[in-house]
Amino acid sequence: MCAMNAVRSPMAEALAKHFFGKSIYVQSAGARKGEADGFARTALEEIGIDLSRHKPKSVEELEEWEGLNFDLIISLSPEAHHKALELTRTLAAEVEYWPTMDPTLVQGSREQKLDAYRDVRDGLARRIKERLRR
Q1: Chain centre to alpha carbon of residue 63
Q2: Record's superkingdom (predicted)?
Q3: 8 A C-beta contact, residue 94 and residue 73
Q4: Average pLDDT for residues 67-77, to the nearest whole number?
Q5: What is the model's pTM?
Q6: Would you say the C-alpha torsion 20, 22, 25, 29 has a positive or negative sign?
Q7: CA 134-71-100 angle, 5° bins
Q8: What ranges do the domains of the chain cover?
Q9: How many CA atoms lie within 13 A of 47 on its CB side?
C-alpha cells in the first residue's frame, strides 16, 4: 500500500507476482487513488515486467471488489501506513512499514528521474525477495 497506488505499491505488487507467481496472493492499493505513472512502467519494463494493465485503486475500492483478506499489509508511505493501522482495528493482519522514497519528487533530466524510479524498483525487489521467502 502506498499513497496513490500509482508508483511504489504497483511496482511492489508486480515484483512480488514476478518473483513468486501464484504461490502468494498479492494486491496493491493506495490510501487514495492516483493516476498510472509512465516512469514506473518504464522502470519495470527494463527488467521484463509489464505494468501497462495496472489500474490504480484505493483501499476502499479493493475492499469493495475483493475484500481485505490479507495476512500482511506492507505500507510504503506515511499516509499508507496510517491507513493500514486504521484498517487493522477491524482486520487481523500484520502491518510492516517500509519507508520508500517517492520518486515523483525527484527533479532533473528524464534520466535522473528514471534513476530514482530504478532505485525504488531495486530496493523493493531486494526487500520483497528477503521478506516473502520466509
Answers
A1: 16
A2: Bacteria
A3: yes
A4: 91
A5: 0.94
A6: positive
A7: 70
A8: 8-132
A9: 14
